[in-house]
Structure formats: structure tokens, C-alpha cells
Design goal:
This protein has 145 residues and is an alpha/beta fold. It has a domain of 95 residues: Ribosomal protein L13 (Ribosomal Protein L13p, Chain: A), CATH 3.90.1180. Helices cover 30% and strands 18% of the residues. It contains 5 helices and 6 strands, in the order βαβαββαααββ. Helix 1 links the parallel strand 1 and strand 2. The longest helix has 13 residues. The relative contact order is 0.23.
Length: 145
């Protein structure tokens, strides 16, 4: 019995469509990150990008539990002295709701070039329309249904 290791050129990629309406942010991000990494495939190899493309629609309708809407703070630094900026979930949602999902998924991927490559396969849209109909994405139902 030999161990199978996926080769980058042998990977067959699919497109998945996930509706974020009514989903909890963290649980949605875990599902998306696992698909982007390829953990839903039997040929998953940790050091090879075996993941698929993911389209997330209705990003503005994603939910957060508890008081995270006002209490959870996201920080980033501009690079200038005194440049630490902060924004709550509510402020981020008003600015661009796609950032919420993108930040949650980005934090669950590897923090190296492989994770950056996997992150490029994520497409997030605020409304229910998306320009990827030609790829014939597979619609994934909400967990527990």
C-alpha cells in the first residue's frame, strides 16, 4: 500500500455556491475554509492546493451570535505612527459586508503563500447575483438541513 500525494496539475476543481443568509459567521467560515483547502476531498494533501472555488452570496445577511455585533472589534494598522484602526462588526457590515466573511475565512487558512493562493478562490457578493453562472456552481445547502 502506497501513500497517495496529490500533484498540483492533477487537481480537478469544482465551483460551489453557498447562501450566507441566516448562517452564523464562524460556522460559515469553517465550511468555506475547508472547501478552499480541499479537506472535503479524499485526495487532500496539506502542502498542495487541492481546494475548490467557493462563491458566497448574500454576505450582508450573515449573522453573528450574542453581542458580537457591537462588542467584537477588528483591528488593522496603517503602517504609520499612531495608525491603529478599529471597527466593530456593525461598522464593517455598514462599510462592506463582504469584509466580514473574507476576514473570517482568511484567518482560518494557512498564513503563507499556499493560504494566499487558496484565498484567491473565494468570491463573496453582497446580493444574490453573481457573475459565475457559466461555471455551473454546485449549490450547498445549510448545515443541518
Amino acid at each position: 500500500m502506497k501513500t497517495y500525494s496529490a500533484k498540483p496539475l492533477e487537481v480537478e476543481r469544482k465551483w460551489y455556491l453557498i447562501d450566507a443568509e441566516g448562517e452564523t459567521l464562524g460556522r460559515l467560515a469553517v465550511r468555506v475554509a475547508n472547501i478552499l483547502r480541499g479537506k472535503n476531498k479524499p485526495e487532500y494533501t496539506p502542502n498542495v492546493d487541492t481546494g475548490d472555488f467557493v462563491i458566497v452570496i448574500n454576505a450582508e445577511k450573515v449573522q453573528v451570535s450574542g453581542k458580537k455585533e457591537t462588542d467584537k472589534i477588528y483591528y488593522h494598522h496603517t503602517g504609520y505612527p499612531g495608525g491603529l484602526k478599529s471597527a466593530s462588526v456593525k461598522e464593517l457590515r455598514e462599510k462592506d459586508a463582504r469584509l466580514l466573511i473574507e476576514k473570517a475565512v482568511k484567518g482560518m487558512l494557512q498564513h503563507n503563500t499556499l493560504g494566499d493562493t487558496q484565498f484567491t478562490k473565494l468570491k463573496v457578493y453582497n446580493g444574490s447575483e453573481h457573475p459565475h453562472a457559466a461555471q455551473k456552481p454546485i449549490v450547498l445547502e445549510k448545515e443541518g438541513k
